[in-house]
Design a protein that fits this description.
Regulator of G-protein Signalling 4, domain 2; 17 helices
Length: 457
């Protein structure tokens, strides 16, 4: 019977490890997809692989205690949990930075007449003071035929998140995480110097590895994270409504981790497990939540990158094509309707693609030739410095050939009316293929009939 149990455990661990490695590798290869790139794929993959190691450490003792001595469990668990928690915090703060900068980009361009529809302007109907209105709350707008009135008086350079975006970079967070993990390593070395049950020697400890003063630093860290870091993350993510569901995903992950960990610590402190096999509650409070986390962390975004969407526990393949008309005609309808265009722009801010629609509108204003000839060259220069040159505030993703051609014209001081036509067409196609389908799906879920009625198949 013991051999059968061991064989089953080995097979389960092997299959779990294989699927974790394969799905993580595919996730990393598809990191350029919009539904993955804003999830900080580097931190996500590290968290997924760490979770895989934790599952193996929790399950393998069921097959043979000699495979996992106490000091190995202590080291792996004490280092893996900080990596999981820190990666989740880093992803949350990076999402916050993406969102606030996207807000600032939209707010900044509200000052530029070229980003308004030619026959409309925006006025808020919200009862909040203007200083408290989020840029993304553009669903509460009315359109009038008056001249454009700036809604915001800030510039992108004055935005705190934009000025300090280096603090939210992958490299900076990686340094912080490494420093904190190093502190945990130092603590473990100190513990190793004084412990007996968790000592490193040829005779492996086979007692209950879940008890002992050696676990106190690890459990203290869990408590601090659950009562301090998690509330901070929840507080900072309030009002974030990204188009990819990253905020909801992070909420599920942090709540799941915190609830299971705190319940485990409380029950363990109350000695509520009694004579239960310690490996059993390790399995219950580690494997179950981590398996759930892996599904949200890797499987769900990976499925969405292939066009599979999870809604009310059902999987739908390419839902837009069956309900809404994903067509150039519908896209043109939105681009030429002032109200729909502002809603599309609002969604683009949530989708982190606001640069594209702002560049398109700027090019439209230039091509209409509405400005004085004396100001045309200045507008063309400003468009280049804002959207195309390296390190531009609103840098758009153009083909290298297109960028080289525009750079050549600028270097030769050749500014003419149609110099951005090719770039505008490229960005328009990019919006049609990427942002527009997500916009239709978003509006369908929000039951926005003024969009669906005009774009029904």
């Amino acid at each position: 019977m013991g051999d059968v149990k061991s064989s089953i455990v080995y097979v389960v661990v092997a299959l779990w490890t294989l699927q974790s490695l394969v799905t993580s590798a595919i996730y990393w290869r598809r990191r350029d997809k919009d539904c993955i790139r804003y999830r900080s794929p580097g931190f996500t993959v590290i968290a997924a692989l760490t979770a895989c190691i934790l599952v193996c450490v929790s399950v393998l003792p069921w097959a043979d205690d000699d495979l996992m001595p106490c000091f190995v469990r202590l080291w792996i668990t004490s280092l893996a949990y900080p990596v999981l928690y820190l990666s989740a915090t880093a992803r949350a703060l990076r999402l916050l930075c993406f969102y606030r900068i996207s807000e600032a980009k939209l707010a900044t361009q509200c000052l530029h007449p070229a980003t308004h529809s030619p026959t409309s302007t925006l006025t808020h109907t919200s009862k909040k003071p203007s200083s408290q209105i989020s840029v993304i709350e553009l669903s509460d707008i009315n359109l009038t035929s008056d001249s454009p009135v700036p809604l915001y008086n800030e510039t992108l350079a004055n935005n705190w998140y934009y000025r300090n975006r280096r603090l939210f970079s992958v490299g900076f967070f990686a340094q912080i995480c490494c420093a904190i993990v190093f502190i945990h390593i130092v603590v473990l070395i100190v513990i190793q110097c004084f412990t007996q049950n968790f000592a490193i020697h040829p005779v492996m400890a086979r007692s209950n590895c879940s008890v002992g003063w050696e676990w106190l630093p690890h459990r203290l860290y869990i408590v601090i994270y659950a009562i301090a870091v998690n509330p901070f993350v929840f507080f900072k993510l309030r009002g974030i409504h990204d188009a990819y569901g990253i905020r909801e995903e992070l909420m599920v992950l942090t709540v799941t981790n915190s609830v299971f960990d705190l319940v485990f610590l409380i029950l363990f402190a109350l000695n509520a497990f009694g004579g239960i096999d310690p490996d059993f509650y390790g399995l219950l409070f580690v494997v179950v939540p981590i398996s759930l986390i892996h599904c949200f962390l890797i499987i769900r975004p990976l499925c969405e990158s292939y066009g599979l969407h999870f809604t009310r526990f059902r999987i739908r393949r390419n839902p837009i094509s069956k309900v809404l008309r994903f067509s150039p005609e519908c896209f043109e309808r939105i681009l030429h309707d002032p109200f729909l265009l502002e809603q599309f722009k609002t969604f683009a801010a949530k989708d982190f693609t606001i640069e594209n629609i702002l560049f398109y509108q700027r090019c439209q204003a230039i091509s209409r030739g509405e400005m004085e000839p004396s100001k045309m060259e200045q507008e063309l220069r400003e468009t280049y410095s804002t959207f195309i040159e390296p390190n531009a505030e609103l840098l758009v993703n153009l083909d290298s050939i297109t960028v080289s051609k525009i750079k050549s014209d600028v270097s030769l001081e050749k500014f003419y009316l149609g110099m951005y036509d090719e770039a505008q067409a490229e960005i328009k196609d990019l919006m049609f293929r990427n942002t527009f389908p997500r916009f239709l799906e978003h509006m369908r879920h929000n039951k926005s009939h003024w969009v669906t009625d005009s774009c029904m198949a």
